[in-house]
Amino acid sequence: MKKDYYEILEVSKTATAAEIKKAYRKQALKYHPDKNPGDKQAEENFKLAAEAYEVLSDDSKRAQYDRFGHAAFENAGGGYHSTMEDIFSHFGDIFGGQFSGFSGFGGFGGGQQTHMRGENLRVRIKVSLEDIVKGAEKKIKVKRKVQAEGVTYKTCPTCNGTGQIVREVNTMLGRMQTASPCSSCHGSGQIIDYRPSDADYQGLKVVEETISVKIPAGIMEGVQLKVSGKGNEAPGRNSLAGDLLVVIEEQEHETLKREGENLHYDLYISFSEAALGTSKEIETVTGKVRIKLEEGIQSGKILRLRGKGVPSLNGYGTGDLIVHVNVWTPKNLTEKQKEFFREMLNDSKFVPNPEKSDKSFFEKVKEMFS
Length: 370
Description:
Blueprint: H1 5-9, H2 17-30, H3 40-56, H4 59-68, H5 84-91, E1 121-127, H6 129-134, E2 136-147, E3 152-155, E4 164-171, E5 174-181, E6 190-194, E7 204-215, E8 224-227, E9 244-250, E10 256-259, E11 262-269, H7 271-276, E12 278-284, E13 287-293, E14 302-305, E15 321-327, H8 335-344, H9 361-369
Parallel strand pairs: 1-9, 11-15
Antiparallel strand pairs: 2-7, 3-6, 4-5, 8-9, 10-11, 12-13, 14-15
């Protein structure tokens, strides 16, 4: 079971953005590979801290995590920044200059080239209530930029592959060095050596790719899934691809209305069925069920079918199907039918006489939401 992100950073669930940033910096410096050479556990803790910070430092992701836990980010691609280069490309500024960047050879040192990262892509995907209840796997077509076949790169002659331009300046305190990203290669340390005819000026081309996305049971409208490495690629050797962000759009069901993990169904019956009692077959997401309605059932009666709703995204059980009974008042009666009801107007059996056990509308609503 994955460890809680707040526990990883050793902060409370009410921690501010500044407190979370400070806590991450503390953890990252504690487990930094430069301070723990060859320590695999320290490296794993370093990655976990980056994963926790990525979620808790983003208001939208943090809200999803607080509501759904780790299940909010489970998807086909899975995972967060799995390499040190990836982590430092996102959070290198968090270290306040104590470590310059990732060298790619097991250590951290100054003057190293920047590993370029491609842009994230965002798509919306429509899912049915059936998909939400049972879980599903969707295949979507995405147009993304990838490095063209045959493109080659060479070391940038301006910065000699460091990705930085170092200058010495005279100050009142003596000679000091300043470093800035190379303007020729934009910090990558590489420039294009050969570009195929089907590539753009960065050596990239657009391709259409079919990507599989797992939809976890219990997913909700607006939840964002991430498929790692399926966004646009970036130019250069050893560059990192962006992510594909999949936003869930829930399709409205024809007869069932969703409310969190519960489903609601309006069942209409006639006066005769309400008076005599009957049984009705109801179509649920997982199949048909038959329910029995007792004699004299009242309009507004609420029946609860346990476990026939939507599974919890966190895996904590399944909601219910709530059936609302509505007695349908007939229209356009014949004269004979009207005469029957005129005769019943003063009949004691037809005079409203609610029992103490019969709950009012407001009591039913209160009970339903409790």
